[in-house]
Design a protein that fits this description.
The protein has about 325 residues and is α/β, with parallel strands linked by helices. The chain has 2 domains: about 130 residues, Rossmann fold (3-Layer(aba) Sandwich), CATH 3.40.50; about 190 residues, Rossmann fold (3-Layer(aba) Sandwich). The strands form 2 sheets. A 7-stranded parallel beta sheet has the order 8-7-6-9-10-11-12, with helices on both faces. Helix 1 crosses helix 11. The structure holds 1,4-dihydronicotinamide adenine dinucleotide (NAI).
Length: about 325
């Protein structure tokens, strides 16, 4: 089957080529992001494969369908960038990769926590410049601190287990609690989690309900100096509210792997250009903020799994086998 792979960076090719060795799909790698302007390029491709920052709204999906596309394959877990109801209206099945290495994201999350707490990003710069002073680098023991985990699915559960190993007290919030985690943490209300946690980490999907879950009201309930980590989806956090809280000290540390307006920034080398997003540029000025470019998933294991699952779904579609990882309208019903 011929497949147009959008937002395809060079590091992707080897994993897709390996997973395709015995499947023999015709893979075409396109550097550009899927959007209204680039959708015509997909004409004639039976399958289109996209990633987190591609745009698949009703207009784009209609263009894909008009061009003969029969399957939309997301090579990521989240599907907030696809109008699933529109895809269903158009008779365009959508598949995703629900569970590629949740360890990759969980471990990156904890990496951000440790780096922020112990100021490793600042220490790295200082030592390279011959500045061996410790002033301003003091952290705290993670053991004994309270961490609030919002969303205890695949990734959140692993984060909770790692932090349990550190000796942290865990407060958990999820509308569908995981009984197995009751042994290491306490499910609680969001209010209590906000007001008692030293560190808050987000692992829930982006839905209309979770949009701006962290807004000025939520921040007002937090302890001074709270650490906020978001490796899930950018729009879970109202960035302007968080920036104000960084200035006031209510938020003492911020670790982001995702940003609500990341689509025009992340995955591109813009080092020779100016950053036009003033909100993002302001965040970069804080010493207590670490931002990574949506890279939590980026391990060999995860990339292998992503390529395998994506091409297996495309093969299943071609063979008329039921799709194991289809995103159905029921999954986005309010
Ligand atoms: P999952 O589906 O296993 O777990 C999500 C959990 O969130 C579920 O337990 C669900 O009940 C819970 N949830 C739903 N609504 C909620 C709400 N209103 N408040 C609190 N919890 C709620 O998903 P998984 O694999 O753990 O991924 C979590 C998120 O991480 C994904 O939705 C995706 O946005 C993000 N992600 C980020 C990656 C990155 O590279 N930065 C890579 C992979 C996923």
């Amino acid at each position: 089957m011929n497949v147009a792979i959008f937002s395809a960076r060079p590091y992707l090719h080897e994993f897709f080529e390996k997973a395709n060795l015995w499947r023999h799909h015709e893979l075409t790698y396109l550097e550009s992001r899927l959007c209204e302007e680039t959708a015509p390029v997909a004409a004639g491709f039976r399958a289109v494969c996209i990633f987190v920052n591609d745009i698949a709204d009703r207009r784009v999906l209609t263009m894909l369908r008009g061009g003969g596309t029969e399957l939309l394959a997301l090579r990521c877990a989240g599907y907030n960038n696809v109008d699933i109801l529109a895809a269903a209206d158009l008779g365009l099945p959508v598949v995703r990769v629900p569970g590629y290495s949740p360890h990759a994201v969980a471990e990156h999350t904890v990496g951000l926590m440790l780096a922020l707490n112990r100021k490793i990003h600042r220490a790295y710069q200082r030592v390279r410049e011959g500045n061996f002073s410790l002033t301003g680098l003091m952290g705290y023991d993670m053991a004994g601190r309270t961490v609030g985990v919002i969303g205890t699915g695949r990734i959140g559960a692993i984060v909770a287990r790692i932090l349990h190993g550190f000796g942290c007290r865990l407060l958990l919030y999820d509308p569908r609690p995981d009984d197995a985690l009751e042994a290491i943490g306490d499910y609680t209300s969001l209010e209590e989690l906000f007001s008692e946690s030293d560190i808050i980490t987000l692992h829930c999907p982006l839905t209309p309900e979770t949009h701006y879950l962290i807004d000025s009201e939520a921040i007002r309930r937090m302890k001074p100096n709270t650490m906020l980590i978001n490796t899930s989806r950018g729009a879970l956090v109202d960035t302007r509210a968080v920036t104000a809280a960084l200035k006031s000290g209510r938020i003492g540390y911020l670790g982001l792997d995702v940003y609500e307006e990341e689509a025009g920034l992340f995955y591109a080398d813009l080092s020779d250009e100016m950053i036009h997003d003033d909100v993002f540029a302001r965040l970069l000025t804080f010493p207590n903020v670490i931002i990574t470019s949506h890279q939590s998933f980026f391990t060999e294991e995860a990339m292998t799994q992503i390529a395998e699952t994506t091409l297996a779904s495309i093969s299943a579609f071609e063979e008329g086998v039921p799709l194991a990882y289809e995103v159905t309208p029921a999954m986005v019903a309010p």
